[in-house]
Amino acid sequence: MKTYYNSHVHIFSKKCIPVYILGNNLSYLIKALDWLQMNRFVIFLLSVFKVLPITREAIPRLKMFFRSFAQGSQHEVIEHLLYQEYDRFSESGSFKIVLLSIDFDSQNAGLAPLNYLNQINEIAEYKRLKPYRDRILPFIGINPYHTIFINLPIEDFVKEYIEVHQFVGVKLYPATGYYPDDSRMEKLWVYCEKNDIPIMSHCTCGRIHYQGDASERLRTPSLFPNMTEDDQQVNFTDTENFKALLVKYPKLKICFAHCGGIVFSKYNQNELEQKLISKNFDSPRVIEYKWYKQVLAWCQSTDYPNIYLDISWINHDRKTLEDLRDEVIKHNIMHKVLYGTDFFVNIDKTTEEDAYLLSKQIFNMDIIASENPQKYLRSLIHGDL
């Protein structure tokens, strides 16, 4: 049997999350995890009054989240994913998961009980344990604003976790307040390109983003100055910020997660196309569509042979997957698509099993969940994974 891979998973527990991760207005949700295991009725009320953008079908999944993952440890999340999820519904004899760590310390959202270094050191400990060492593939999350990098070069930090602690890639989350072409990461890209290290970059306008005054970190002039405070994150994530990086390091191996994150069952593609042509960036959705088009173009380019996309989070939506599949087939880039789910950020949208089954209906899982990720994850440091 083939080895399958979920190339996009998060396992951080409530202990890793600062109280203002969702902003001041929703901080009570994070605080509630300490004093209330939200029951079905409470979650339902939050959805009715549009405090949480969730459907009735999502309520049982969120209840499970609040009663288990939110209260537990990263270890318990790994156990759940491997043994209660993938070993149960996957036809594959072995399913490996890529664990994407995130630096929550450096986005002005407060301090978590389990800080960034403790979060990744826990993962490094799990990687050493026999039951997990061959099934979890951790990526080291990087934010150049972390105070550890005042005296420690970023590339040295990453090199230690990849070569000593057996992390296999680098995770970028520019929405948390930094640019991917930040000069402080210059030597990191030299290291990654030289050693064929896989990079995963967040590429949608989502719930987790920098909670401070964005103007403190934004370049002037910003690309999209008319966005709301929460949506200023698009200035950091925008694919324009990767262009100079790719020109300088054309062999960087980067997967753009969520392929922009646009959901075509909610937004008319023709209208988005017209706004893109006229450069009418009046909402984050138009910008996400711009990212979608740019990532597809990069996947076709021979100038940048190592660009990938993944279907994480968007694989709750059939139309989005079908439209993406058609584009991928049209441009002959099926070899650039990776399977992922974005657990547990996707928990209000779908289950792991449903995301898997829908993806399987639309894509060839032997290609996107086995052949492609094996190539993507291979590096000169670790070889085949």
Description:
There is one protein chain. The chain has helices at residues 27-35, 40-48, 59-67, 74-89, 116-128, 154-163, 186-195, 234-237, 240-248, 269-277, 284-300, 318-330, 352-362, 365-377; strands spanning 3-9, 94-100, 136-142, 169-172, 198-201, 253-256, 307-310, 337-338. The mean pLDDT is 89. The longest helix has 17 residues, at 284-300. Helix 6 (154-163) runs parallel beside helix 7 (186-195) and helix 10 crosses helix 11 (284-300). 39% of the residues lie in helices and 10% in strands. Strands 1-2-3-4-5-6-7-8 form an 8-stranded parallel beta sheet, sandwiched between helices.
Comma- or semicolon-separated keywords:
alpha/beta, 10% strand, TIM Barrel, 8-stranded parallel beta sheet
Structural class: alpha/beta
Shape: globular
Q: Which architecture does the CATH hierarchy give at level 2?
A: Alpha-Beta Barrel
Rg: 20 Å
What is the average per-residue confidence, as pLDDT, rounded to a whole number?
Answer: 89
Our count of domains comes out at 1
Topology readout:
Elements: E1 3-9, H1 27-35, H2 40-48, H3 59-67, H4 74-89, E2 94-100, H5 116-128, E3 136-142, H6 154-163, E4 169-172, H7 186-195, E5 198-201, H8 234-237, H9 240-248, E6 253-256, H10 269-277, H11 284-300, E7 307-310, H12 318-330, E8 337-338, H13 352-362, H14 365-377
Parallel strand pairs: 1-2, 2-3, 3-4, 4-5, 5-6, 6-7, 7-8
Helix pairs in contact: 6-7, 10-11
In short, what is this structure?
The chain has helices at 27-35, 40-48, 59-67, 74-89, 116-128, 154-163, 186-195, 234-237, 240-248, 269-277, 284-300, 318-330, 352-362, 365-377, and strands at residues 3-9, 94-100, 136-142, 169-172, 198-201, 253-256, 307-310, 337-338.
